[in-house]
Structures are given as structure tokens and as C-alpha cells.
Fold Ribose-5-phosphate isomerase A.
Amino acid sequence: MMSDDKRLAALESVKYIKDGMILGLGSGSTVNWMLRALSERIKEGLRIEGIPSSKKTEKLAKELGIPLTDFSKTTKIDLAIDGADEIDGNLNLIKGGGGSLVREKVVDACADELIIIADSSKVVKQLGAFSLPVEVLPFGFEVTVANIEKLGGIPKLRRKENEIFVSDNGNYILDCSFGTIDGAQALHEKLIRLVGVVETGIFSGMADKVIVARNGEIKFLTR
Ligand code: 5RP
């Protein structure tokens, strides 16, 4: 089952956590399994501090008794563990299915090491079947929509229960279909130059290791 594989990948990732580390805590259901496993190790005496990448992760981490810190205390993260929506053979990622891409990118980008955990459904030959989440300023988002269309994308304003979805940063998310994405970094660079775009869900050249579980077996993808 997919959720068993998410849990298995998460359990494997916790083996890389060492005493004294500052951890980047990603977001999503796979990461939630990692948080549960991490809290068990903390009960056994492991000392770490985590920086959460979303309000949801922060809430669960607090409930699980995981000690937290923030960027006002340290800008150094030893290891970040995060999920992904799509992963290609070069470890380019699409992230942001949960709407946390900006904080995830801030956290993941400043980590010495980034481990991605996923079930095998996330591994693809080429990115793009999953619409690319792009976080945009609410002000004038209609202009940003038009500019993304000029780049060949089909943006769709994300909604949740009929309301416009608002990110932890107070912004909107445009889920953008570009068909198959050939040059992930090039697409990111075009999008990030558009006024109103806060960040894209393309995480290129960031993951150091991907732990994938498929039918109860673990596989490692490395660059
Ligand atoms: C949230 C993310 C998540 O990491 C991604 O959506 C994977 O989620 P899940 O582990 O629930 O499949 O990028 O913004």
C-alpha cells in the first residue's frame, strides 16, 4: 500500500539523524510519518532541534514533543528531510502539492544535506504530469496568470473547499500545467523572473538523496 511505503521511506530517513543536529522538517503526509518516528527517538534520548517548513508541520511537531527552533536562533541546518510530488532521474523535484513550497525551499536550500522521502508513485521519467505549483502575490495575480499563459502554461488558481487557498505566507497558489517539462531549471528561471511570482515548486539540484519505497522495499536514488 502507498501509505505503508510512505511510512517505510520515512522510517529509513530517520536513521540519518544524529545527536545534536539542527533538522529541517519538511511537509506532507510522508514527512508526518518521519515526525512520528523522530519523536520516538527523542523519547529514547536523541537531542535535536527542528525548523518546521509549514504551520501544519509545526503543529504536529509540537504535539509530538519535538523541540523546535527558528531562523532567528540559527541559519544552519544540518539535515532537511522532505517529501515531493514528482522526482525525475536527475533528482529534479516538483513540490508544493500541500502548498508549502516557499517555506520548504527556504528550509531545504539552507540544509547541508537534503533527503527526500517518497513512495514509488512519485518517481517519473519526466516532470510535468503533476501541475507545477507556483506561489504568487494575491495583488494583481490576474496579471501573473496572463504572464504564465504567455510562457505556455495553463495556470489554475488553487481552491480549498470552494475558497481560494491561502498559503502560510498569505499568498495564492497557481497550479500550472506545462505538459512534459524538459528543462526544469530553465522553466523555473523564466517563472521566477515574472513580477508577482514569489517562488516555484521546481526544486532543481537540491536533493542529495532520495529514499523511495516500493511494495515494502527501499531504493536509494542519488545524483
Ligand atoms: C508540500 C509538499 C509535500 O512534500 C508533497 O506534496 C508530498 O506530500 P505527501 O508526502 O503527502 O505525498 O511539497 O508542499
User: Anything to note?
Assistant: Helices lie at 2-14, 29-43, 55-63, 101-109, 141-150, 184-192.
